[in-house]
Amino acid sequence: MKLFENRYTQTIFFINLITVILIAVGFLPREISFISLAILIIYALTSAKEALTLFFSSVPFFIALPITNLFDNFNTWRIVIIVIFIKWFITRINLKESITLSKVKTYFKNNRIEFVSFLILIISIISFAKAFDLIVAGKRIIYFINLAMAYALVKSSTSSDINFAIKLMKSFLVGAVAVAMIGLLQLMGALTLDFSTFHYLWAKQIDLALFGQNWSDIAYQANTWYSYSGNNLKLRVFSIFPDSHSMPIYLIFSLISIYYLFTSKIADLSNRLLTSIKKHDKELKPLFLLFLLIAALIILSQTRGIWLALLAPIIFGIYYKNKLLVPKIIPSVLISSAIIFLLIFIATYSITSLPQFKTSSSNHTTAFISRLFSIGDLNETSNMGRIAIWRSTFISITKNPFLGVGIGNYPVALNQNVALAKAGSSAHNLYLTMIAEIGMLGGLLFIWLCFLFYKQAKELMSSQNDTFKIFGFYFSAMLLWIYFYSLTDAALLDERAFLAFMLFTGITAGLTKKTYAK
Question: What's the total number of domains in the chain?
Fold first, then answer.
């Protein structure tokens, strides 16, 4: 199965991947990342579209630039996306055409997502008045603008070329497979190395190279890399990501690519699923193996909120199984994969039962099960901590209902140092985090924006075009999975997870433009 269609894009991707790995393990100095950046910029200047496919395949492998000793965490992707955006913007702008208030009104009227996003941006800027740390607030605004650039590029590119949407999904899957493979190597490290060696290697060597000194120090002292049950210490696989919460979100988005490619290879959607699988066995087998790999890594992250939120896409698939809106084979693929997911869950139990970090405790077989059943235990330490944080967040919202504590300044809601935002301080709820930061109005607009993304995906399911139906169905299902998980975490705000979100929402927006309404 060919995932890269352009050999130059493929070559640069693997050169960058190998370079990042060599930097991460210490064979190359961090300064080499500037050479990688230069190559990416040059490629972006030659072809914005090809650079965009390279960009989304490389999302997990963009690393921090060691600009100075005190400023070594500025990520490569921020520069690359600006270059691609400028290249795209120059080719589209018409200097002779003036921008009038009437045109702006018409644009926002026809693009509700952009309008709501603009309102959120304005409120976020106004919330500077309440921000304790203006620099952190400013960085968060710039971050969201960079993300908006990625969204705009994808929307524009896919609205003029439906095949390019498929190309982007394929390229994204390349990066996801690489993430999964590194995750397996990480698990092997947990099975063969002692804890001190593993922890130091990952925090002080690999994460230092990938994310800079600040995150390296944070990760060494406090992280979400392990689960604890009695005397057992188990790795929560996080691969090349900073934590075990953002990785499964990223991989869930990659399932959209797998589902789409799997279903689109079935020529006749009116056939039964098993009949179609037998007929297209050779074409579907590689995608099935990729699904097994990705699903296993999602489970091995041991993120309980992800496990529980899986109910959302399952219910979604069952609901549409007997509806006439989409061919029955489409929800059948989703439901069947959910059953397989549960079987993989059982299989991974044997893996997690193995002793890790050279420990000799005798209760390894119960650790994974204990974590599973702790989901609904309100007396479990992690769950109690979440409840306490939710209470404190609600108190902060009542005290700061209009502008919150300032964009990017969530730790203030818990009376913490704003620097802890870098360590992942949040309300353990995406929506509460946003409300606490920018106030009730801004937070509700953010929730509405999330709904508009979902609504747009659902609209594709009503299209007469099977390509749109397939993509719309699977994206809607995976979006529900992530939205429900976000009730227990704010990991979607991680830049790698959010870039994946921008990719698929951008594709959805592109496909729903009037030029493709059929």
Answer: 2
